[in-house]
Amino acid sequence: MFSQNSENEEQDTFKHLNKPVKKSTSVKIDSSRFNLHDIERPILTEKDLREQYSFEKLESNDALKSTINYLSKYYSPNRDCFLTFFLERVPFFKWILEYQIKDNLLKDVIAGLTIGIVHIPQGMAYSIMAGLPAVYGLYVSFFPVLIYVFLGTSRHLSIGSFAITSLMTFSCIERLEGKYYPVIDSNEFDSVTSPIEFNQTTSIPFEMSTSTMNPEFLSNDPVEAKIQISMCITFMTGLIQIIFGILHGGFVTKFLSDVIVTGFTTGAAIHIILSQVNTLLGISTGKVTIPFKIIGNLIEIFKNIHHTNLATFIVGLVSIVIFVLVRELINEKYKQKLIMPVPIELILVIFGTLFAYLFDFHDKWKIKIVGDIPRGIPTPSLPPFKIVPDIIGESISIAIVSYALNFSMAKVFSKKYNYELASNQEAFAYGMGNLVTSLFKGFPACVALSRSAILDGVGGKTQVYGLVSSVLMLIVCLALGPFFKTLPNAVLAAIIVVALKNMLLQITQFPEIFRRSKFEALAWSITFLGVVTFDVDIGLYIGVSVTLMLVIFRSQRPRMTVLGNIEFTDIYESIEICKEAKELPEIKILRFEESIYYANVDNFKYKVMKYSKIDVNETLKKIHAEKTEYAQVLNEQEIIKRRIQILMENKGIDNLAYANQEEMDKDLKAVKENVESHLTQIRTALPIKHIILDCSCINNIDTQGVNAFVQLYELYKEIGVQLHFTFCKPCILKMFSKTKLDQRLDYEFIYPTTHDAVLHICHRKTSRKNTPNTRKKSVEQISIEDNILV
What we know:
It is a single chain. The protein is mostly helical. The protein folds into 4 domains: about 1-55 and about 555-615 and about 690-790, 2-Layer Sandwich (Transcription Regulator spoIIAA); about 65-90, no CATH class; about 105-185 and about 195-550, no CATH class; about 615-685. Strands 5, 6, 7, 8, 9, 10 and 11 form a 7-stranded mixed β-sheet that branches. The chain has a two-stranded antiparallel sheet with strand order 1-2. The protein is elongated and about 125 Å long. Residues about 1-5, about 15-40, about 185-210 and about 770-790 have low confidence and may be disordered. It is found in: Membrane. It is a multi-pass membrane protein. This is STAS domain-containing protein. Keywords: Membrane, Transmembrane, Transmembrane helix.
């Protein structure tokens, strides 16, 4: 099968690997050649490895058993289980016992006061953005923050009101106008900014308390109806997040990669800024019903821009200029020297409220103001669950987006300060915060990127800052709220616009994303354009869909790498990227760099055949032609023999001249030898005799993937090429066992490492050459009789 020259060449080529040895002997690695420590061990197959060393039995994971173990650990009716469950769900009692008062308390108090001060204007601003009275933003800045102190695991997350969740809530509320509350004429009534007399007990308008409900609406008062819709959205958002936490469903947000989140938030920032233009100009615009909301809003703005209130515009412009100057020239420039940043948001709110009161902005200049803010906390109540079918889609979107934003920011700080997060407990904490907030007429809470950055900048150390912030917000709700009655809405709009500067500037990251990965740049672009072109929720669905399609596309078309051996080592690297890596004669080493499942199994088989450099179909045609010829001759001989036998029986003839059995057997043997010779020539002519599949990158495999292994194994076996498998992970071996592949696939050709496979092949070649007369039937020469009917 091998010529003398080829034998010498092979010996020279393979000698750097190691001397061929029997499986039962040790392999002595020459350290001078391998540049490694001396290693002695036998050449091992996977079967040898598991027989000689202690391996657990390969069993598939029992989902039911795992569930029972989890339930018994956390939900068994005993004291230890209850204590474990309680500490898992309320981690406050874990870390508070280790709290370092001397090192952390002062920093946490300063951070809490700073964040509380920022919460006041942002809470009111984002509440108005959500289509609700300003006071409800104060509740969102109190309840979720307090609950997160006890349930959260991040030390630097500022939960509360945020622009994106407010915008998504407003979009849902606006969509239900006319179905659950009367259509509002923006030229006659402003449901948010008009001063409304509130009932001190219920925090709803007096006119609502005495009005007759229209059965078609949640309320005849649009403000109250919007509050109830917001309550239901918040309740369902919290419930979904709690379910995520309990059922370990946080994996859903993994489809929102950092690139998708960046594209989504950048597009949302444009929507948010555009939504504040009306307030900054003091104009009212009609409701946009077309899918392209930004275009529709721009059209409405330019249609009404001649109604601009100059006084409102000046107030907004001055607020923006002052905010930017203080933020960029003082807070950013001197942040290392300042104990805490200048609370410019609160300063603008205080002076804006004061000037509006002294100069009567609302009556004299028609500048819209916040209006009455009632003292106290509203009485808890349940949301109207009958509207759940109409808001469940938005609730799921808000739950996923807020969790993704929250946890992404939490991971940034956990890596920076080296502490652990509990992803499922985080989802539970966010959900409980939203659930409780919904009972007090709040809207969905989320992390605010700017507040979290401020919290980190002022040196906040633990969740204790949240207690301080909550106390400050409680004081505002119980006593100070009414003092903000005359605060101009334009000041709050200015705060929102400037706060979103960094989010909008994320667009400058696109060139770097494009340079790093074209796929990620495509996902970013489509998500961003989807949000900008259509709407926030539609853009989110587009982004998730794009992510899924890219995942499927990548997994369907993975790389197949050809590996070569680096001389004098047991290292095998890609021959494309490593010049020292050389292919071995008659051996092709391939690495498939993806899990194998039904969507890419055809691509896997195609690439194995392509990179093996063997025309399998043409070779099979030649082999089948030879076998068919032999089968025809054999069949003809059998027919002749049968006819002779019948003739002899019928005529009673014992001896016929042409019925010489020995002659027929001799002819048949000659034909058989000729066919075998041709088959040997066909197989010997193949450039590759062994294919090694490096499975180190295959993390999962399904039934179709296993079947592909079998098909390739048997296909190559028929043409005289042996398929070997290396680095098979437990998941692959489990599938082999579950699908009974171990009964069809010889475990002799599964190895723990690629080097074991190569050494074993070298040993087999040498053994065959040294004992030509006693060579057993090999996989390269399949018996005619074994395959004659294939």
